[in-house]
């Protein structure tokens, strides 16, 4: 059994802010039962699942987007995943002040990549169109993260968003 509390004390690391993977039951179950077999890494069609802290798989949105193909859950020999008919996670996109548009430079790369059109641009009189995130539409795929030229977009959970 892996004692995360003890390890976190020594490494000053906290439980990941984002879910490691779509559809995981919960963080404790995942860490306690994941054998780190890497079958989910091999199964991921977009290759965004990577070895994270302690060798546990995690999603890296800087590598691309989650297509919600369910192959990671299907490849896992353990009971770590909720039914894939449920929502994958409560992760949403958030933009920070490094955004080119917010710094008066025309850029719409995130909106171009957003398949569900959760990122729209509001025209500004005498200025650059500003991104507006419709979080109720955002599915948390992360397609906007890797395409952002200034790394201004991060994925956050709804709990982080409220802070």
UniProtKB/TrEMBL annotation:
Essential cofactor(s): [4Fe-4S] cluster
Listed CDD domains: NapF_like
Task: Offer one Pfam family short name for this entry.
Answer: Fer4_7
Binding, [4Fe-4S] cluster 2: 66, 69, 72, 76
Which Gene Ontology MF annotations are present? 4 iron, 4 sulfur cluster binding; metal ion binding
Where does this protein hold [4Fe-4S] cluster 3?
138, 141, 144, 148
Every copy of the 4Fe-4S ferredoxin-type domain together lies at 23-54, 55-86, 129-158
Q: Which residues bind [4Fe-4S] cluster 1?
A: 34, 37, 40, 44
Q: Which PROSITE patterns match?
A: 4FE4S_FER_1, 4FE4S_FER_2
For this record, the Gene Ontology CC terms, alphabetical, are: cytoplasm
Top-rank lineage group of the source organism:
Bacteria
Q: Which UniProt keywords apply?
A: 4Fe-4S, Cytoplasm, Iron, Iron-sulfur, Metal-binding, Repeat
Q: Does the keyword Repeat apply?
A: yes
Assign the protein's first listed, main location to one coarse class.
Answer: cytoplasm
Cell location: Cytoplasm
Which SUPFAM superfamilies does the UniProt entry name for this protein?
A: 4Fe-4S ferredoxins
Identify the NCBIfam families for this entry: napF (TIGR00402)
Give the matching PANTHER family.
ADENYLYLSULFATE REDUCTASE, BETA SUBUNIT, FERREDOXIN III
Q: Summarize subunit and interaction data from the UniProt record for this chain.
A: Interacts with the cytoplasmic NapA precursor.
Similarity-based family: Belongs to the NapF family.
Q: What does this protein do?
A: Could be involved in the maturation of NapA, the catalytic subunit of the periplasmic nitrate reductase, before its export into the periplasm.
Q: What is this protein called?
A: Ferredoxin-type protein NapF
Q: Which organism is it from?
A: Photobacterium swingsii
Please name the gene that encodes this protein: napF
């Amino acid at each position: 059994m892996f004692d995360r509390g003890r390890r976190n004390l020594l490494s000053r690391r906290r439980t990941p802010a984002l879910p490691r993977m779509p559809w995981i039951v919960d963080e404790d179950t995942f860490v306690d039962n994941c054998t780190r077999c890497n079958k989910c890494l091999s199964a991921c069609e977009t290759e965004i699942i990577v070895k994270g802290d302690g060798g546990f798989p995690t999603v890296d949105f800087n590598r691309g987007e989650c297509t919600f193909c369910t192959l990671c859950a299907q490849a896992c020999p353990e009971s770590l995943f909720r039914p894939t008919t449920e929502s994958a996670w409560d992760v949403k996109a958030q933009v920070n002040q490094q955004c080119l548009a917010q710094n008066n430079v025309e850029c719409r790369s995130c909106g171009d990549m957003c398949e569900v059109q959760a990122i729209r641009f509001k025209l500004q009189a005498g200025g650059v169109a500003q991104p507006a995130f419709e979080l109720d539409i955002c599915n948390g795929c992360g397609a906007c993260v890797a395409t952002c030229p200034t790394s201004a977009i991060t994925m956050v959970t709804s709990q982080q968003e409220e802070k």
